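User: My advisor asked me to double-check a structure prediction for glutamate formimidoyltransferase before group meeting. I don't want to rely on an old file, so could you generate it fresh from this sequence?
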Amino acid sequence: MADVKKIVECVVNYSEGRDLDKIEKIVEPYRGKEGVRLLNYEADKDYNRVVVTVMGEPQAVKNAVVESVGVATELIDMTKHQGEHSRMGATDVVPFIPIKNMSMTEAVELAKETAKEINEKYDIPVFLYEKAASKPERENLAKVRKGQFEGMPEKLKESEWEPDFGKREIHPTAGVTAVGARMPLVAYNIDLDTQNIEIANKIARAIRHSSGGFRYIKAGGVEIKERGITQVTMNITDYTKTSIYRVFETVKMEAKRYGVNVLGSEIIGLVPMEALIDSAAYYLGLYGFSMDKVIETNLME
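Assistant: Sure, here is a fresh prediction for glutamate formimidoyltransferase from the sequence you gave:
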């Protein structure tokens, strides 16, 4: 019987979205590696952040991630970093997502191995989060990252915020990294035709779970000065329970309260086909539609 390959996805977030030369060097370790496939990378100048999506065999992906973290550590100086997105490290977030023939338990173990190696090789303190979290209060990435790079030196001294790996001192230029395991999520932004960040923040509060909104939404307002707009930026952590279309329609409804229009929206990184099919079925009024009716689904092994 042939070996059944395990497949994991990793969506690494780095704090560099403007210098294309640096971005290419950070991405290079994912190219030409056996057992690793570079699926996508998207840089955002306003956020000053690049999101890299790779997939492959667990150990091969882990090795490529650790190598890339080393490159980012050399190239990114967090003391000079500015951007609209919350961040605490050069390599900010490293989530592992089990895709095929792999359990969440195995993804958690992979996250722990990766975190340990990052700390040992580069002396970067690492927090485990989401399913890999060592404590309940560390499951939520927003809580882990609160204070950002500038506030981390003091935060690490607090009794409840000792890193899972490493000393209570940030790396002087690379900061702190979070490594975790989670299910697939949808990174989604909705553009508003207003420069008033308070409106974007009010709408974000209306939809996010922590403020009484949708259970599987983490959201905030962001100002995109270059375009003269604001965004409601969010992670949909379980698209099977909170659909993209439901969030989009709610944001449109809330925006009307302030005389603001929705200009459009964008998905960052890759997205499960099921999440888009669900929204397509809603807007087209399809009934009895399922993934079984999608050609690409029937071509998969």
